[in-house]
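Please, structure for the following, as tokens.
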Amino acid sequence: MLNIISAQDRRDAERDRRIARARAEARPTAQALVGQAGRTGNRGPPMLAAVAEVRAIGELLYGTCWTTELARDVGEDPRQVRRWLCGEAAVPERALSWSRTLARRRDRQIDALVGTGED
């Protein structure tokens, strides 16, 4: 018996494979990273790898296109930030420290604008 697959069935199967591959390669969002790391139970800061922390800070401060903005603010080349993300280079302690400082500064600015919510 011949098993004939139509062109439409082949296209559908290829589309399903591409979707599955993209989902497997998708990286978690910054909120997911922080949420997972924050489940330590001791109410301390989340324990993240340096690159995950820089990525989370960058996404939360600047949105989805964050690498150039964060690079500018920490004094690095955007290509260097992308090297950190793909694992070609380690995040220097100085850049991590500056990223944390930027996040804390933004937190204070937002709190000053809208309050802490602890009425």
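Helices lie at 7-25, 30-37, 50-62, 67-74, 78-86, 93-114. The chain is about 65% helix and 0% strand.
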